[in-house]
C-alpha cells in the first residue's frame, strides 16, 4: 500500500531496517551523492595497549569471549576524587563529566561543563585537556588552553577527528580540530531561535549533537524545545518542534512538540533519535520529518521495561546507536536502558533508583549516568559520577 494513500500508515523501524538490509544486499543501499563520512566513528581493529584497568580498544586478550560488565577507563571513586586534573587512568580527575564521543583511533572526548573544558582520553587511558582552561568560563575562539567555553555539554566527532561541541551556556556550536583549535560553527552567543547561516543563526541552550552520513549536524536545541539541523554549508534550519513551546505531541515538523531535549543520535538509515528529557521519552524523526514516540510516557517518571505504552524512563539524557539497538543513559533511574528493533525497552546496567557506582559484574551500579557512546570495539563508553566507564553489555 502506498503511504500517501493512507496517512495513518507509518513504516516501523523493523520494516525500515529490513528494507535497507535488502537494498544493501542488492547494492542499492546508498546514492552516489552521499558523503561517506559515517556516523561518528568507523569500526576497525587496532593495537592493544595494556593498562591495569584495561581501558584500551578494541579488545582485551585476557578476557574471555562474551565477557560482560562495567570497567573503569579513567577517573576514580573516592571522597575527594572530583575536580579536573590530567593524568593516567585512576590518577586523572573529572568534574561531573557529561557528553562523551569516540574517534576512529579509539580516543574518547569528554565534555566537562563544570570546568568549562573538553578532555581527551587516549586508548592507553591518558587524560589531557584538549581545549579550554579549568574554571575559566567565557567565550573565545582560540587554540587549546586559550579557548573559552561556558557549560559545554555534548560532543560528536567526524572522520577527520574534528570534535563538535554544543557550548550550551554560550548558545553556540563549536568545532575543535585535532590540534585543539576552536572555532564557532553556528550561533552568535545570543539565546534565541533563528534559522540562518553560521553566526546569523541563534540557538538557546543547545545540548545534544550528532552527525549524519551526509555531513549534517543535528542539534537538540533544549532551550527552544526543538531539533535543528546544520548543513555542511553552515545553514541552520528547524526540523521539528515548536520554538518556545514545551509539550509532547507526535506529528510532522512544527506540529510536533518536545520538552527540553538533551541528546540526539542518527542511525545508518538516517532516522534521528531524540532524548526528550522533559517528557521522559525517546522520540524518532524519520526522513519526512514525522515524529513518533518509541519509549516512555510523557510526564511519567518510572523504570518499567516493556514495549511502547508500558516502558517508563526518568530524566534520560544520553543516547548511542548500535545497529538496530538504542542505548539510553537513563539518568534519573541510574541505569543504561536498551530499546530493540521492536521498541521493547530493557535494563542492561545499573539498579533502578540506586545512585551509586559499583563496577564489575552486571548489573553493577551507576551514579547519574549522562553521556554514552559506541566505541570502536562495539562496547559502550559512558560518563557516570566523576568517571569514564566501559560497558560490555550482554547481547
Write structural notes for this entry.
The chain has 395 residues and is mostly beta strands. The chain has 1 helix and 27 strands. The radius of gyration is 20 Å and the shape is globular. 45% of the residues are buried.
What's this, in brief?
This protein has 395 residues and is mostly beta strands.
- Please work out how many helical segments DSSP would assign: 1
- Give the mean pLDDT: 86
Classification by helices and strands: mainly beta
| Spans of at least 5 consecutive residues with low confidence | 1-12, 14-64
N-to-C SSE series?
HEEEEEEEEEEEEEEEEEEEEEEEEEEE
Helix content: under 10%
How many angstroms does the end-to-end distance come to? 35 Å
Q: Approximately how much beta-strand content do the residues carry? A: 25-35%
| Global outline | globular
Largest sheet: 5 strands, antiparallel
User: How many β-strand runs?
Assistant: 27
- The strand line-up of the biggest sheet is 2-6-5-4-3
Over the alpha carbons, how many angstroms does the gyration radius reach? 20 Å
Main attributes of the structure:
mainly beta, globular, five-stranded antiparallel β-sheet, single chain
Q: What secondary-structure arrangement, pairings included, does this model have?
A:
Elements: H1 13-25, E1 69-74, E2 87-88, E3 100-102, E4 108-112, E5 117-121, E6 126-131, E7 152-157, E8 163-167, E9 172-176, E10 182-186, E11 196-197, E12 206-211, E13 217-221, E14 226-230, E15 235-240, E16 251-252, E17 263-266, E18 272-276, E19 281-285, E20 290-295, E21 318-322, E22 325-330, E23 335-339, E24 345-349, E25 372-374, E26 380-384, E27 387-392
Antiparallel strand pairs: 1-27, 2-6, 3-4, 4-5, 5-6, 7-8, 8-9, 9-10, 11-15, 12-13, 13-14, 14-15, 16-20, 17-18, 18-19, 19-20, 21-22, 22-23, 23-24, 25-26, 26-27
